[in-house]
Task: structure prediction
Amino acid sequence: MKCVICGHGDVLPGNATVTLVRGGTTVVIKSVPAGVCGNCGEEYIDEATTRRLIEVTDAAARSGVEVEVRQFAAA
Result:
């Protein structure tokens, strides 16, 4: 697939670091599987992975965490 942002690079399998904020909670999740543009670095995360990221962030917010950094783990 070609990158929709730059239109030049090929999107290849890689990893991303994602930061999500819910209310007063910030969660940084490292090593998230993603497609990464070899030209501009744009990151593409699939729907199933996005759902998992939201679940993790919502759970952290419910537990009262202010800042959390973790490695990605599939469900």
